[in-house]
Design brief:
Elements lengths: L1 E4 L3 H8 L5 E4 L11 H16 L3 E10 L10 H7 L2 H11 L4 E11 L9 E2 L8 E12 L14 E3 L2 E2 L5 H7 L1 H14 L1
Parallel strand pairs: 1-2, 1-3
Antiparallel strand pairs: 3-4, 4-6, 5-6, 6-7, 7-8
Helix pairs in contact: 5-6
Length: 190
């Protein structure tokens, strides 16, 4: 069994579309603050592995706005909770000529063993290695549209629709998390 560490049921549904044997592990690990997603996902995977003493999959994701040098990026959850998604959209529209952005997700997998994966965070002397898998979707920030999804979904448009306008299946097929999950599944099942 593979434990997907999240408190978000939407993420679990998305993971189960690619990895049916995934079980949710509701563990609120201390999130490291860092300007890059890789060390955050790696630290989370190590903490969750130590908690569960079993294979775990952790993700960290964010909306990276080009005109703001990637902000909010790894701080997307904090910015969503404190400023709000609609305010981020208004700020982008007011301050930027270029509204290009990308959703990025990095998955960290840890099972306590040495890993042969394309990207591995080896950690320190007492740290188990963590395999890292990334997914990215390019798009741009738009005024809020749609009633589905969660987080920044209403203001992120790709291929003519916001994530919030897509059905869950459509979003899963196109999403940053879905692409990272596909990369992980190919490696894990291969």
């Amino acid at each position: 069994m593979l434990r997907y560490v999240t408190t978000n049921p939407g993420k679990v549904r998305e993971a189960r579309a690619r990895l049916p044997a995934v079980e949710q592990l509701d563990f609120d690990y201390p999130e490291q603050q860092h300007p890059d997603l890789d060390p955050i996902a790696a630290a989370g995977a190590r903490a969750a592995y130590r908690h569960a003493d079993a294979p775990v999959l952790v993700d960290d994701a964010g909306l990276f706005v080009d005109g703001f040098d990637g902000f909010p990026g790894p701080y997307s959850s904090f910015v969503e909770q404190t400023v709000g998604v609609a305010a981020v959209g208004r700020l982008c529209a007011r301050e930027l000529d270029d509204l290009d952005a990308a959703f990025r997700c990095v998955l960290g997998y840890c099972d306590g063993e040495a890993l042969d994966a394309p990207r591995v965070d080896a950690g320190g002397d007492d740290d188990p290695p963590v395999a890292l898998f990334e997914g990215r979707v390019a798009g741009h920030v738009v005024p809020p549209r749609g009633d589905g999804g969660f987080g920044y979904d209403p203001i992120f448009e790709t291929d003519g629709a916001t994530y919030a306008e897509m059905t869950p299946d459509e979003k899963n097929e196109r999403s940053h998390r879905g692409r990272a999950l596909d990369a992980f599944a190919d490696w894990h099942e291969g």
